[in-house]
Amino acid sequence: MGDDSPSVSTSRLGPNASGLFWLAIAVTGLGTGASAAALTLILQAVQHFMWPDPGATLLDAAAQATPWRHILVLLGAGLVTGAGQIVLVRLTSSNSIDITEAIWFSAGRLPALRTLGSAVLSVVVVGMGASLGREGAPKQAGAVIANVLSDKAVLSDEQRRLLVACGAGAGMAAAYGVPLGGALFALEVLRGMLALRLVLPALLTSVIATATAFLVLPDAPTYVIPHFDGSATNLALAVLVGPIAGLVSVAFVRAIAWADRNRPKRRWRLLAPVLALGLLGLVSIPFPQLLGNGKDIAQLAFSDQLPFVLLLVLLILKPAATLLCLGSGVPGGLFTPSLALGALLGAVIGHACSFFWPDVQPALVAIVGAGAVLAATTQGPISAVVLMMELTGQGRSFVAPVLLGVIIATLVSRIIEPRSIYDARLTDEEIAQRQKLREPAKR
């Protein structure tokens, strides 16, 4: 393990690194941006075909669809998932397609065909309504491109590990138009360290990927939110939201770990997704908000357009739907579902407090909750704050309470559970091994 340790010389990754490494960074950014744009267009095409309503969001289209469409589309998604998983398993018997695990224990090496196949399958079933995130696919595509280029350029294991993390972060950056947040996510969450020698490669990859995707995708904030005025009330609410968000995040991470460990095997790979997504289709008839990655729910919570009773119901059903999909073997991301969970939690707390505290703004509390849960579930407080600012196109009106909520939630979650949603499958021994890899060798 000594040669793979992060304690490498700065020159290997800094401005004096080989020209091939920097060329690989640029090509990874270009390829990841193009891949993210292509995958997003596939998702949009599938969604508009399965839930026809030109110009409408998935929530609006699903709300207007017939009950039979809910059932048939989700059953179809289950069949596609089951058949796709069987094909993917047969593509390779090599190491896992989990990016975090590959970065830490395989120097970023991934089975290319299986990972790309999983990415395409993911956007198809999420477009059909699976309750998982769409960022998993561009992250996988970016990681595969980086891995292939590492082979071509004969990069060292440490350079490969960094390049794969940068590619995955660039995939998120390109998909959501968040270049700074994507770069920080690559280093803080995936690579597990924020160091000056790593910053330039991560930034360059994300900027190139985002600029490339902007040629096809719209350059606009993901969420539209009102402006909030700063007050002591907002800070007090952040202190209230923080520890609750931390505890909820621990429960969510542990539930994800359980669902991941109990994914179906053998013949159940075909049957389990059909049963799970069929059930989701039934429940989505009265609750169409459960379909998709949760972006529409978060937007409604951020603009205070959901009644309190519905917020309470969705706070239970939405994470349950995500766990149901994940546990049945459906591929997809967890970023937006985590953000949506935080938004629902914050909105519930905000509305509850408003009954006794008239000055409370539930929409702002929803934003604080989203940032806090996102930080605690990813174990990436810095990237979470920046991502919230880039996703909304704002910052000054909520940055102080969000920062406070993020700090408290992350502290609470780290005391109880060191894992994030991206390394929930790791054993205690692997977590300890990863911690040793993060710490420079003592000389």
Describe the secondary-structure layout.
Layout: H1 19-50, H2 58-64, H3 67-91, H4 99-105, H5 112-128, H6 136-153, H7 157-176, H8 179-191, H9 196-213, H10 232-261, H11 268-283, H12 295-302, H13 308-327, H14 335-354, H15 362-378, H16 381-392, H17 399-416, H18 428-438
Question: What can you see in these coordinates?
Answer:
- The chain is an all-alpha fold and 443 residues long.
- Helix 6 (136-153) packs antiparallel against helix 7, helix 7 (157-176) crosses helix 8 and helix 10 (232-261) packs parallel to helix 17 (399-416).
- The two termini are 16 Å apart.
- It folds into two domains: 2-213, Clc chloride channel (Orthogonal Bundle); 232-438, Clc chloride channel (Orthogonal Bundle), CATH 1.10.3080.10.
- The model is unreliable at 1-16 (pLDDT under 50).
- It is built from 18 helices and no strands.
- The radius of gyration is 21 Å and the shape is globular.
Tell me the helix content: 55-70%
Overall morphology: globular
**How would a textbook summarize the main sheet?**
none
The total domain count is: 2
Spans where pLDDT lies below 50 across 5 or more residues: 1-16
**Total DSSP helices:** 18
β-strand percent reads under 5%
What integer is the average pLDDT?
A: 87
CATH hierarchy class name of the largest domain: Mainly Alpha
* Number of DSSP strand runs: 0
Distance between the terminal alpha carbons, to the nearest Å? 16 Å
Oligomer: single chain
| Rounded Rg | 21 Å
SS content category = mainly alpha
CATH architecture descriptor text of the largest domain? Orthogonal Bundle
Instruction: Note the run of SSEs as H and E.
Output: HHHHHHHHHHHHHHHHHH
Fold-level CATH name of the largest domain: Clc chloride channel
